[in-house]
Here is the input.
Amino acid sequence: MALSRVCWARAALWGSTVNLGPLLIRRLQLGRCGLAWGAPRYLFPRQLLIRHFWTPKQQIDFLDIYQTFRKQAHPEILTCLERTVPVISDAGLRWHLKELCNKIQHGSHPAVNDILALRECFSNHPLGMNHLQALHLKALSRAVLLTPHLPTFLLRSRLKNHTTVIHQLDKALIKLGIGELTAQEVKSACYLRGLNSTHIAEEKCRTWLGEWLQVSCSLKDAELSLLLHNVVLFSTNYAGTRR
Here is the structure.
């Protein structure tokens, strides 16, 4: 349960990444005391209320909106990966990365081994966390609902922190066991890791989460760039989620 609360807290905080207009900001500044604060939170529930206060319909609608934001970055991330293929020195790794990108672009869901075969690519140049270019970092930030409007060194730092937290949660979840999670907790965990679980059956979510954990818990700290990219690689086509 504690793990679920951490996951949902992170998901709830994603609402803060949405830019608020100057008029709304001013109203919030003026209205934090008194009745003026009451109207904005009902007019803008996605931005101003945590998930606990959303209605069931709002939960689905708002998570779909956030998923739309995330998926807009997917094609750009796949393009960035394709552009790195010629730079990879190892011929076998070049082939694996090209095949993986082709598979995803043609609507197939990769297997765990397809992902893990590329560990070396994502630990050093050109796809290690310290070697990613600014445009690549911006696209990855959008894919995990972090603001892309920061200097490159801050984008890199925030993505490192985000991925490290996910990796630690994954280790804790392995110890706890997926079977101990409720249906809602499973869907929460999947959504946090990139899957639009609101429209996927519980058993399929459990299967996906189990495969994600296989990838995550096989990676060393130096290979966490692969886990970050897995938010896109592993979620784009699962169970017909590509639309």
About this structure: The mean pLDDT is 81. The chain has 13 helices and no strands. The radius of gyration is 19 Å.
